[in-house]
Description:
Blueprint: E1 2-6, H1 12-24, H2 30-40, H3 46-49, E2 52-57, E3 63-68, E4 88-91, E5 95-97, H4 106-120, E6 123-130, H5 135-140, E7 144-145, E8 154-158, H6 165-171, E9 176-179, H7 182-187, H8 201-204, E10 215-219, H9 226-235, E11 243-245, H10 255-260, H11 263-270, E12 276-278, H12 283-289, H13 303-315, E13 327-330, H14 333-345, E14 350-353, E15 363-366, H15 368-374, H16 377-382, E16 389-393, E17 407-414, E18 420-431, E19 434-440, H17 447-466, E20 471-479, E21 485-491, H18 496-511, E22 516-524, H19 531-548, E23 551-556, E24 566-573, H20 576-592, E25 613-615
Helix pairs in contact: 1-2, 19-20
Amino acid sequence: MAKVRTARPAEAAELTALVLRSKAYWGYDAEFLAACAPQLRIADAQVAARRIVVAQDEGDGRVLGLASLEGSWERAEPVCSEESRGGRVARLGLLFVEPDAIGRGIGRLLYRDAVRRAAALGVGRLLIDADPHAAGFYRAMGAAPSGGSPDGLFRFEVAPVPPAGWALAWTGGVAAVHLGNVAEFNAQFQDPSLDDRQHAAHHYACLAAFYSPSPAVLVLPRAVPPGWIRLVGRQLGWGPEVEVYDGVAERDPGLSDAVRARPALAGRVTGRGLPLVPWGRTAAFSELAGLPWRPRELRHESKSAAHELFGRILAGGGHPLIVLPGQWRAGTRRTAVRLLAARARAGESTVLKSEHGVGGSGTTVVTPAGVRAAGGARAVLRGLPRGPLLVEEYVPGPAGADAGPRDLTYDGFVDGAGRLHEVGAAVMDVVDGAYRGATVGPGVVPGALEGPLSAFGRAVGRELAECGYRGWFDVDFVADGRGRLAPTETNLRLTGPSGAFMVAERLDVLRGAGHLVRIVDRVELGARLPQAQWDELCAGLARACAELGAVFVPAVPTAAFDPAPWFGMLVAAREAGVLDAAEELVRARALAVGEGFAPAGVQSSKSNGVVGLRVT
C-alpha cells in the first residue's frame, strides 16, 4: 500500500532521478533522454512552487512515484479555443512512477489526488500534455482528449469538481456504514397484494455498495463474491479500509436483528461514530442505530397517502404543468371489478396498483381491449394477487419517434434538522409498469420538464419534512402527451436511481465533471457461472467498457448464481452514445458467456455464508 504526502525540497535530486528512470522505461534512447533532462529536472526551490507530492510505500517508506499540480491563479490561460468555462487553469506537469511499481495502482493514486487537489483549489480546467505511451492511462482515468499538443504529446483535459453539497450533507462529509436491509424494509408493510416471499430483495441488498459515494462498511444479508467487492472498489476508488460483512441473514429478512444478535458485529458497525445508512427505516434498524422509531413518518410510502399529499400541494396552486390522475381505493375485489368494468366501457385504460408495490410489482396496466380479451374485468382481477387495490386513471404518454421521456423521477432528502436537499432528476426505463433502470446526469431530463418536475419535487420534500419524515425520498412522474407531468408515488427510502446519483457523484469527483450514469436493474446471463468465471466476465466487461470510454460497475452479483441467472449493473460515460454502446456490449456478452457451459455441468458457486471481514 502507498500513501500520498507532500514532497520535500531536499528530495529534489532523488525525484529527478525517479523521473528519468520512469521516462527511460518506455525505451527511449540515451540521446533523447539527455535532451529531455533539462525539462524534467526538479530544482529544490520548485518542489513547493510546483505543488509536488509523492506516493510513498507504507511498508518500507520508499518513494514510488510523484505528481505536480502547476498553474497561475491570476488568470485563465488561453490554452485552447474554448474559454467558456473560465476559472482557474492548472496543469498536471509531472506524473511519473518507478518502473518496478508500474501496474500497482500508484499512477491511479497520484492522478486522483491531483484531480482532488485541483478541485479544492478551484481549478476549472486541468490540462495534461501526455507522453504517447501514457495516453491510454489518461483515457482510462477519464481524461478527455482535447486536440493536438506541442512536441508530439497528447493533450487531455479534465474538469475537476469538489464533492456536491448534497453529498456532503447526506453523511456529514464522512464515510458511512451501509446496511442492506431491503427485505426488512419491504416486509414491514405486509401488503397481501404482493408476493410475500420477495425473493429478489436480498439480491437488491447489494445496492448497499451505493448508499453513499464512499462507504466505510457494507453489511449484506447474502454472501457476495470477493471479486465483486474488489472490482467495485477499484472502479469507484474506494480506499483499502472499506469493510464488508456478508452472509449475515441469508434467508431471514431481518438484517438489523441479525446484526444485533452478533454483539461483536453490532459493536463494529455502531461503535465507531459513523452514520448508519439503511435502504429504509424500520423498527429494527432504529433499535440498532439508537434512533427514535416513528412509523407514521413512513405513511406516504403508501400510494394512496402519496396521492392525497400530491392533491394537497396542487390545491395550493403554483404548479400549472403538474396534473394529478384520478385514483379510487377498492377495498374489495367486487369494488375493483365494478370500477375497472366501468372504465373499460368508457374506453379508458386503467392502472391497478397495490398500496406498497416495489419496482413495478403490484402494478398492472389494463386497456379496454385487454379487459375484453380476458373475458371481462372479473377475469382480469382473478389473475392478480389477492388484497386491496387502487384503481387509477391511466395517463397517455407522448407519441411519435421523437417523443420525450415517459417516466421520470426526482430525488432528494430531508436531513436530521428538517432541511431539504435536492439531489436531481432522472429518466427511468419502465415497461408495462415495471421498472428496469434509470439514467442520471447532465441533459438527461429535457429542460422543459426539469423545471416543473424539480419544483414539485421540492414541494413534496417540504411537506414530508413538515410531516416529520427524515431521510431519502423520491417522487415518480409520468409525462403526458401535452408536456405535463403526473406524479404517481413517493418512495421513502433509497432506490435504484439514488444509486446512480451516488455513482455519478463519485465518478465526477474522481474523474472530472459530466458523467452520465445508467443503472440497469436486470441483465440476463446465458449461464449460471462458477464464481471464478463470473469474476472473469466482470473484469473483461470492465476492460471492454473502458475501451469504449465507459465505466462498468456490477451492482447486483448474487443473482448470477440463481438457477435462472441475471445481474444488475451500472455503466457511466460522458456521452449518451457511449453509454448506449456500453449497455449493449454488456448485454450481448452476458448472454453469450453461457455458450461454453453445458447446463447440466454448471457447478454452484454459493459460498458457505460465514460472516467474514473483507478488505477491498
